[in-house]
Amino acid sequence: MYWQLLNWALCSKQIGVSLEFLTEIFSNKAQQAQLITVLLSVTVAILAVLLNQWFLNRRAKRENLLGKLEALYLAIEEYDEFSHRLLIKSYATSPVANEDQVNDLNNKTQEIYKKITMYLDLYFSDQKIDISECARLTVLAFLDYQVNRASIHNVISKKEVEKLNNKYSKDATEVLNILESLKALVVKLVAEHKH
Q1: Has domain 65-193 been given CATH number 3.40.50?
Q2: Are 75 and 115 within 8 A, CB to CB?
Q3: For the segment 163-183, what is each residue's pLDDT rounded down to a tens digit?
Q4: Cα–Cα 20 to 30 A to 110, which of 40, 89, 117, 163?
C-alpha cells in the first residue's frame, strides 16, 4: 500500500511537472493553437490507421470465407458426381460393374464426404445442415452392391431388377435433394458475404 501511494505521488508529481513544462512552452496563444492542431492531426492519423486496419481485416476474412465457400461448392459438386456414379454401379443389374471400380468409387465418395463435413464443421458450424443422410445412402448402396455381388451368378428376376431400379431412383433422388439444398445454402452464403 505504501509503495502504491509513493508511486502515485511520483506519477502525479511528474504529470504536474509535465503540465507546467507544457504551459511554459505553449504560453503564447499561437503556440497553443499549434499544439491543438498537432494533437488533432495525430489523433486523426491514428484513427485513420486503425480504421484502415479494421477494413483490411474484414476484407481478408471475407475473401478467405469466399474461398472456403468456393471449395465447399466444388466438393459438393464432386460428391454429387461420385455418389451418383457409385449408386449407378451399386444398383447395376448386369455384371458390368467391377468390384474394384465400386470400391474406388465408394472410397472416393467417403473421402469427399469427409472434406465437405470438415468445411461445414470448421467454417460454417452455425449453419444447421445435416448431410449424414447422403453418406448413409451411399454406404447402404455399397452394401447392397456387396450383397448382390455375392449372388451375381444367380439370375435376377424382372421383379428384382425393378426393385433395384426403384431403390436406386429413390436413393439418387434423396441424395440429389440434400445436395441441392446444400448448394443453395452455399450460394446464399456467397451472396451474403460478397462486397
Answers
A1: no
A2: yes
A3: 767 777 777 777 777 788 888
A4: 163
Domains of the chain, by residue range, sit at 2-47, 65-193
Nearest by Cα to 91 from 83, 1, 194, 63: 83
Query: Each residue of 17-62: pLDDT tens digit?
Result: 566 766 676 677 777 778 788 889 999 999 999 999 999 998 998 8
- The three cell numbers of residue 151 are 449372388
The answer to whether the beta carbons of residues 76 and 183 sit under 8 Å apart is: yes
Q: Is the dihedral of CA 106, 111, 117, 120 positive or negative?
A: negative
Q: In the chain, which ranges are continuous DSSP H helix?
A: 2-25, 29-90, 99-123, 132-150, 158-193
The pTM of the whole model exceeds 0.70: no
Contact 125, 67 (CB under 8 A): no
Find cell 459438386 and name the residue: 77
Residues 6+ apart with CB under 8 A from 85: 105
